[in-house]
């Protein structure tokens, strides 16, 4: 895991061309990349990866050898191969070779088929991606080519809403100044649009003929996984132009609001930043797998012990008895001593006793998991009707692990939230709108709502906008001046761009969804923002077009947390409209209407309590003189050479004071359905939830509150935003100290010594009783994840009830998951929807992808996919729990069954001269597990119980048979009859045992249990039939045995006795356990009780809103710089500029300042569009 | 709540559905099986079910045990057909190498196997370059003592008891599993080209004078070939049929057993036995089963009582404990 250490230099580097010598071979073989545009021959020299993506493993030819090689890397398979080889040695072979080869071939075949189908789907999805069409400029004309044929150095054309095919250097676009907008949700999860700009020299290359002649050469860094940095140089026409990330379009981004653009492919296919970030697919093993492997090892040890005992027995027997028995049974030629015979019999016994861990164990486990994954696929309660997507278990091997998840790592955007901003409520001059009342005046519940407000009076209304409270529209219609001013402000004070393709069809390009929601709300209430030029804004106010003169945009930034516009209305009055975070804005209001202020504050509290993102709106009238003076001061400030930002800020500060409160808005960052409930339930199930998001701290915290991860009841929320190692360490230390100092911590007489070494902190922090939460930002996290601090961080974080990591990179997400996985030894689950979550999804024990969103990368990388976060609850608490219980029961039963089966051989060894003679017919041995493991066994049992059963199933028939004769007088104790009796007893005992352990007797259980008995007898009679014997006399030598033996009443009496003796103690023990201690069913009843309680609590929770803290939403998804962009007119179409007839300022100044702002803010907590990896 | 602004516009560049998703209905079927809502019977071990079970088992097992025990003890009386057994002890007919040392194809009359026996028969596969018929260690070690039973009556010389040779093997063995090779007029010709097992005195086609009890289908041979499960075993040797209902099969008196000793067992500390027994519906004398049934029945009954007491004593407390949780 590499974290870039020298982050701040990225902008500096972008400015200066890299010197040739600076390139170091630190990236592997490729030291630098050179790509010349439109020159495939030249680029081919370097043999760069093509744009073809390959996630599949095999092709038709390599499938068999590679797959077999992989399968034999499994210890189990090799072990069985080894057994097979042992069985081929005649002196050792105690069982025919087919007893092993049949299951082995079966297992290999099933696995191979599964791998083949998996790989087929991978091929298919690869093909689908590789065959997406893109327009490539070849020999002067645009040609449709599939993605995979795109090469480094090609120039390709992208159109609006298309995915970027490879990492491109932006050359030119349809927008002025080579601007282009992209959405990087697939890469980093942020959905606000970002601007990329072509370097000036290429931005004029708008038409194909000029592009075809472009022969610049890009020299840049080799492929790497750093999403936010790029350094390179373009050499063209004798000039060197430095390239930065600002000029790059990365694969996985989507082009937005840009008709077309041209780009030069720099990295293709596996070299792209997206693919470099995706990490390698690791085979995930469940803890049951590991447990099973340990168990198998132990059992193998046990098996070796038994083998040794029996081998010693054999050596002694051959020495004492066998030598003298040679007249009837001479030793094999190769055997010359009792010792050697013992040695051989050791291997023979290893073969016989291997049925304790038959290969079918692995198959059965897989089959059960497959079944569970189908149950997940079939679950109607995990089907999302809206998106028509059922849950999908993409991996079949992890189902029982779901029941053991302790940590859930969740993405925010698209996972917890729908990424839909909804204008939900507002407060206009002291009156709150947006609550829905029923006829009696009570707040209406969900589902019993009246009709939404009818906006048909307004032809320009957005059809998708829904509002429930008709009184607001009434107020607007009746001409309430406050309401008018309120919406006027919303329609004027923003940086949204409008686009009107046809008359009346308005499209807004908002850089933050909050702003889009506000402007759309104003639009529907009759204040339609129609169009803007750099100096005007045209608004349709209740049907009449009004054009305001835009005098200034006082842009947003993270310190100001507000934005204002100063406009002159057609009457000539100058007014400042301001919207911003409540905490900031309320201090800048004119204090006179105290009553209004307090009502609005109450409303704000109420909104915040419901988890809404609030904004306060205010205005201020300015007179002409004052404005003139202010504009002068502003101009001076903006021309200042040093501390321009500060001076501008103070100028803004000056005008934004004594404002008049208009009201407040409440925007709902729509959570996915049922998120708070799910989180509360998972928390109750002792599952810790960490939110890892690329989003800003404030947004993340806000969502934390609205989904009830953070509550105001919490003792404290620690926020770690330190920029240096020391700061972070100090903050973490303080957090720990606070937790320990709090009265909660010393709950049960626990006293903590003053100086405790940090290594022992865990024990202390486990005892922390208060509820804490930790919020840590990306750059602090980078320090916290360093080797010497990671444990400290982990312990602090784990003591908190909720952890939110914001502004983290995809890699950091994976690192956090890895950290918990490594040190906590807990099962982790990661859930996310975007490509930025892929590495986290792959790292966690279980990865869950949210399907039904636009991207499929997360789903492709995931183990489970469904469309709603709330399904996690059912996945973990229902399917996971069931799978886990069933798997445990199955394993216990399986080992019980096989111990009972195999140990019979051990006891028989003492009576057959330790000669490794089997008790059963070899077909029974072959089929025992095959027939029996098709059962959905739900059983319990322990090893000693298995041995107990084996003792009984052997010694009772032994006792009976020792002296018995048949009812026709002939001997009963012949080997074959004995074999049939022991086998039948065993099958019946084991079936009764299953019956006892089956908690739920469904038709299927009946079918399998009775069916398996029936199959046993059917096979028994078939194997012992004359027909098979006539064909293969040497293979089916048990001919006639079944009918002869099973016709004996003694045999049935023996079986009945054995069954009764085996089962009686089990029943008695369980009965005692049940009546003395609460058993499983009591636990279930208990947990149901708890669940009911929880539900009751939930309802309470929902009702009780928080009251104390307020959070403003607008600020958080917004970035600064756009105000200036608008005022400069850079992003306006030339036509509209021409109409407006404005002269623009010098072209690069706004961009320069934008860039400067970014480089400044790169060090601050919530920076611009590019997330800092580390401060 | 109101839904009015979606920052994520529909994408037309990429695929809309995850792979496999098409226009078809993807809603999972609402069947009881798929939704894991199958009607189920949930047996719970309660006092009402467990205790009666124990008592019932006790009540059933004890009478059965007594019945078996009595039947088994009555077998002593020599009425009906009497069965004559020979017994061997310390003889490992269940040894792995012994058990596999036979060729069932040969014994089934397969002509190729007759002349080319299976490798499993080694070292009793060939003798002096001739295939052994029947091959293998089992056949080679066939019990060949002759037992004759005489009633020492009032007369001076004992009267021999008729011992029936036939009817001592399973029907399937005699008719299906064992067959003489085909072809040839006489049995001797059919076994042409083979040699007798090393330890045998006579070749296989001279085991008996009667043609339907000679060769591989000789019943003494078949009985021997059905290997015993345990090192101490007995095998049926002869039948003594009841002549009339009026007389006991073997009337009280002195009997004289004549043994032609061919079969050495001293070398491996073996012992031979001769057993005479009648049988009942449940076979020969077998006290173990009866005693076991009585014991288990009693234990079950006792367990029932103990559980009843425990249940009665602790039930209330545990129930209240449940509720307090």
From TrEMBL, chain A:
Residue stretches making up the P-type ATPase C-terminal domain: 859-945
Basic and acidic residues composition-biased segments: 1-12
Annotated localization: Endomembrane system; Membrane
Reactions mediated catalytically: ATP + H2O + phospholipidSide 1 = ADP + phosphate + phospholipidSide 2
Domain P-type ATPase N-terminal, chain residue ranges per copy: 36-101
Predominant location category: membrane
Binding positions (ATP): 411-413, 515, 556, 579, 613, 693-695, 807, 813, 836-837
EC number of the protein: 7.6.2.1
A Gene Ontology term for the protein's cellular component: plasma membrane
Annotated residues for binding of Mg(2+): 411, 413, 833, 837
GO biological process terms, semicolon-separated: Golgi organization; phospholipid translocation
Region annotated Disordered, chain positions: 1-38, 1146-1175
Residues passing through the membrane, by range: 95-113, 295-317, 337-363, 890-916, 947-965, 977-996, 1008-1029, 1049-1072
Example GO molecular function: magnesium ion binding
Pfam families, A to Z: Cation_ATPase, PhoLip_ATPase_C, PhoLip_ATPase_N
Cofactor(s), by name: Mg(2+)
Enzyme class: translocase
Keyword tags: ATP-binding, Magnesium, Membrane, Metal-binding, Nucleotide-binding, Translocase, Transmembrane, Transmembrane helix, Transport
Top-level taxon in the UniProt lineage: Eukaryota
Membrane topology reported for the UniProt record: Multi-pass membrane protein
Residues annotated as catalytic: 411
Similarity-based family: Belongs to the cation transport ATPase (P-type) (TC 3.A.3) family. Type IV subfamily.
Protein name, as recorded: Phospholipid-transporting ATPase
Organism annotation: Enhydra lutris kenyoni
Phylogenetic classification of the source organism: Eukaryota, Metazoa, Chordata, Craniata, Vertebrata
Gene: LOC111138842
UniProtKB/TrEMBL annotation, chain B:
Membrane topology of the entry: Multi-pass membrane protein
Coiled coil: none
Transmembrane segments: 44-70, 288-310
Principal localisation: membrane
InterPro entries for the chain: CDC50/LEM3_fam
Cellular component aspect of the GO annotation: apical plasma membrane; endoplasmic reticulum; Golgi apparatus; transport vesicle membrane
GO BP term (any one): phospholipid translocation
Pfam family, one: CDC50
Signal peptide (residue range): none
Annotated segments matching region Disordered: 1-28
Alphabetized UniProt keyword annotations: Cell membrane, Cytoplasmic vesicle, Disulfide bond, Glycoprotein, Golgi apparatus, Lipid transport, Membrane, Transmembrane, Transmembrane helix, Transport
Highest taxon, organism lineage: Eukaryota
Subcellular localization(s) per the UniProt record: Apical cell membrane; Cytoplasmic vesicle, Secretory vesicle membrane; Golgi apparatus; Membrane
Family (UniProt): Belongs to the CDC50/LEM3 family.
Protein name (database record): Cell cycle control protein
């Amino acid at each position: 895991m590499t974290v870039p250490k020298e982050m701040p230099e990225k902008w500096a580097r972008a400015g200066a061309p890299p010197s040739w010598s600076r390139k170091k071979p630190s990236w592997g073989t490729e030291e630098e990349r050179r790509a010349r545009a439109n020159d495939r021959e030249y680029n081919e020299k370097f043999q760069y990866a093509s744009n073809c993506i390959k996630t599949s493993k095999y092709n038709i030819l390599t499938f068999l050898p590679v797959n077999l090689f992989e399968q034999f890397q499994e210890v189990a398979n090799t072990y069985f191969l080894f057994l097979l080889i042992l069985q081929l040695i005649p002196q050792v072979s105690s069982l025919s070779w087919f007893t092993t080869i049949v299951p082995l071939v079966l297992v290999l075949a099933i696995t191979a088929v599964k791998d083949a189908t998996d790989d087929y789907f991978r091929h298919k999805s690869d093909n689908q991606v590789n065959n997406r069409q893109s327009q490539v400029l070849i020999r002067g004309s645009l040609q449709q080519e599939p993605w995979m044929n795109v090469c480094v150095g090609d120039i390709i054309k992208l159109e609006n809403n298309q995915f970027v095919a490879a990492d491109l250097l932006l050359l030119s676009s349809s927008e002025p100044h080579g601007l282009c907008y992209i959405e990087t949700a697939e890469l980093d999860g942020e959905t606000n649009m970002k601007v990329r700009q072509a370097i000036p020299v290429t931005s004029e290359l708008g038409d194909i003929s000029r592009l075809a002649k472009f022969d610049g050469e890009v020299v840049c860094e080799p492929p790497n996984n750093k999403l936010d940095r790029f350094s390179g140089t373009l050499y063209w026409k004798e000039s060197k132009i430095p390239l930065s990330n600002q000029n790059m379009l990365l694969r996985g981004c989507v082009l937005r609001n840009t008709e077309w653009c041209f780009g030069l492919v720099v990295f293709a296919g596996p070299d792209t930043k997206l693919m470099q970030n995706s990490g390698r697919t690791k085979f995930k093993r469940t803890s049951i797998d590991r447990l099973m492997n340990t168990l198998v090892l132990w059992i193998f040890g046990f098996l070796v012990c038994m083998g040794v005992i029996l081998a010693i027995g054999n050596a002694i027997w051959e020495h004492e008895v066998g030598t003298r028995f040679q007249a009837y049974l001479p030793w094999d030629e190769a055997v010359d001593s009792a010792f050697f015979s013992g040695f051989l019999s050791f291997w023979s016994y290893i073969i016989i006793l291997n049925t304790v861990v038959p290969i079918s164990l692995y198959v059965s486990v897989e089959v059960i998991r497959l079944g569970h994954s189908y149950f997940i696929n079939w679950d109607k309660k995990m089907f999302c009707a809206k998106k028509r997507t059922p849950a999908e278990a993409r991996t079949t091997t992890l189902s029982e692990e779901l029941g053991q998840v302790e940590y859930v790592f969740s993405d925010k955007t698209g996972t917890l939230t729908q990424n839909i901003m909804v204008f939900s409520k507002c407060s206009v001059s002291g009156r709150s709108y947006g609550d829905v009342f029923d006829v009696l005046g009570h707040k209406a519940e969900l589902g019993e709502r009246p009709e939404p407000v009818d906006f048909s009076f307004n032809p320009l209304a957005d059809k998708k906008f829904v509002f429930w409270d008709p009184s607001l529209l009434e107020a607007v219609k009746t001409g309430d001046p406050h309401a008018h001013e309120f919406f006027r402000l919303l329609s004027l004070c923003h940086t949204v761009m409008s686009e009107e393709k046809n008359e009346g069809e308005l499209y807004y390009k908002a850089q933050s969804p909050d702003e889009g929601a506000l402007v759309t709300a104003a639009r529907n209430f009759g204040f339609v923002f129609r169009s803007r030029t750099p100096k005007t804004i045209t608004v349709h106010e209740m049907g009449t077009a009004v054009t305001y003169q835009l005098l200034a945009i006082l842009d947003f930034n993270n310190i100001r947390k507000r934005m204002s516009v100063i406009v002159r209305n057609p009457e000539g009055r100058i007014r400042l409209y301001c919207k911003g975070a409540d905490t900031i804005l309320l201090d800048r209001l004119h204090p006179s209407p105290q009553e209004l202020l307090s009502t609005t504050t109450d409303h704000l509290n109420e909104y915040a309590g419901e988890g809404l993102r609030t904004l306060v709106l205010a205005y201020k009238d300015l007179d002409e003189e004052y404005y003139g003076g202010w504009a002068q001061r502003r101009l001076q400030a903006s021309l200042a050479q040093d501390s321009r930002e500060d001076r501008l800020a103070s100028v803004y500060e000056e005008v934004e004071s004594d404002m008049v409160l208009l009201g407040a808005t409440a925007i709902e960052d729509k959570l996915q359905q049922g998120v708070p409930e799910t989180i509360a339930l998972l928390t109750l199930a002792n599952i810790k939830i960490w939110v890892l998001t690329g989003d800003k701290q404030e947004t993340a915290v806000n969502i934390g509150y609205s989904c009830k991860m953070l509550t105001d009841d919490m003792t404290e929320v620690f926020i770690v935003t330190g920029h240096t190692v020391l700061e972070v360490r100090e903050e973490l230390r303080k957090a720990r100290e606070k937790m320990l100092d709090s009265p909660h911590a010393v709950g049960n007489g626990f006293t903590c010594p003053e100086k405790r070494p940090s290594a022992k902190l865990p024990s202390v922090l486990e005892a922390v009783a208060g509820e804490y939460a930790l919020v840590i930002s990306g750059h602090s996290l980078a320090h916290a994840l360093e080797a010497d601090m990671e444990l400290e961080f982990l312990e602090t974080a784990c003591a908190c009830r909720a952890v939110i990591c914001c502004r983290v990179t995809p890699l950091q997400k994976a690192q956090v998951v890895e950290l918990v996985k490594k040190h906590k030894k807990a099962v982790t689950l990661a859930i996310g929807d975007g490509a930025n979550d892929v590495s986290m999804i792959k790292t966690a024990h279980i990865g869950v992808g949210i399907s039904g969103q636009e991207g499929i990368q997360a789903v492709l990388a995931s183990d489970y996919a469904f469309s709603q976060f709330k399904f996690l609850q059912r996945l973990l608490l229902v399917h996971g729990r069931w799978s886990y219980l069933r798997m445990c029961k199955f394993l216990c039963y399986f080992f019980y069954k096989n111990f009972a089966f195999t140990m019979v051989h051990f006891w028989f060894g003492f009576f057959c001269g330790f000669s490794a003679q089997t008790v059963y017919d070899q077909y029974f041995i072959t089929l025992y597990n095959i027939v029996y493991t098709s059962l959905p066994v739900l059983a319990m049992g322990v090893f000693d119980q298995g041995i107990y059963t084996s003792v009984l199933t052997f010694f009772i028939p032994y006792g009976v048979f020792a002296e018995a004769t048949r009812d026709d007088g002939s001997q009963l104790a012949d080997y074959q009859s004995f074999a049939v009796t022991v086998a039948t007893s065993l099958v019946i005992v084991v079936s009764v045992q299953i019956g006892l352990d089956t908690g739920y007797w469904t038709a299927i259980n009946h079918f399998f249990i009775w069916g398996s008995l029936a199959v046993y007898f059917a096979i028994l009679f078939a194997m012992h039939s004359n027909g098979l014997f006539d064909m293969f006399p040497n293979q089916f030598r048990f001919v006639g045995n079944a009918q002869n033996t099973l016709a004996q009443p003694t045999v049935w009496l023996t079986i009945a006795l054995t069954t009764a003796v085996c089962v009686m103690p089990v029943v008695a023990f369980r009965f005692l356990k049940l009546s003395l201690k609460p058993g499983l069913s009591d636990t279930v009843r208990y947990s149901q009780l708890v669940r009911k309680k929880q539900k009751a609590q939930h309802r309470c929770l929902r009702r009780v809103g928080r009251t104390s803290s307020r959070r403003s939403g607008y600020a958080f998804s917004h970035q600064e710089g756009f105000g200036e962009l608008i005022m400069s007119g850079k992003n306006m179409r030339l036509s509209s500029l021409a109409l407006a007839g404005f002269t623009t300022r010098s072209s690069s100044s706004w961009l320069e300042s934008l860039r400067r702002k970014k480089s400044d803010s790169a060090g601050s907590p919530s920076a611009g569009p590019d997330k800092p990896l580390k401060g | 709540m109101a839904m009015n602004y979606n920052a994520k516009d529909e994408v037309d560049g990429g695929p809309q559905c995850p792979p496999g998703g098409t226009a078809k209905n993807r809603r999972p079927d609402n069947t009881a099986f798929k939704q894991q809502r199958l009607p189920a019977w949930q047996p719970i071990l309660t006092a009402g079910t467990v205790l009666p079970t124990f008592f019932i088992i006790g009540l059933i097992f004890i009478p059965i045990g007594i019945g078996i025990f009595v039947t088994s003890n009555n077998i002593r009386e020599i009425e009906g057909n009497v069965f004559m057994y020979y017994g061997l002890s310390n003889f490992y007919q269940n040894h792995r190498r012994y058990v596999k040392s036979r060729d069932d194809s040969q014994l089934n009359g397969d002509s190729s196997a007759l002349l080319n026996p299976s490798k499993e028969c080694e070292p009793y596969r060939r003798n002096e370059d001739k295939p052994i018929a029947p091959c293998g260690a089992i056949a080679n070690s066939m019990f060949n003592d002759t037992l004759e039973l005489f009633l020492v009556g009032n007369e001076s010389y004992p009267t021999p008891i008729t011992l029936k040779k036939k009817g001592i093997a399973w029907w399937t063995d005699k008719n299906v599993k064992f067959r003489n090779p085909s072809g040839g007029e006489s049995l001797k010709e059919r076994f042409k080209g083979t040699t007798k097992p090393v330890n045998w005195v006579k070749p296989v086609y001279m085991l008996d004078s009667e043609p339907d009890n000679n060769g591989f289908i000789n019943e003494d041979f078949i009985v021997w070939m059905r290997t015993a499960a345990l090192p101490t075993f007995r095998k049926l040797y002869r039948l003594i049929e009841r002549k009339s209902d009026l007389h006991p099969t073997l009337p009280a008196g002195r009997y004289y057993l004549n043994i032609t000793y061919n079969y050495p067992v001293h070398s491996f500390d073996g012992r031979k036995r001769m057993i005479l027994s009648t049988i009942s519906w449940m076979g020969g004398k077998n006290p173990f089963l009866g005693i076991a049934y009585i014991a288990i029945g009693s234990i079950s009954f006792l367990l029932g009582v103990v559980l009843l007491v425990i249940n009665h004593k602790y039930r209330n407390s545990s129930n209240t404990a449940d509720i307090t949780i």
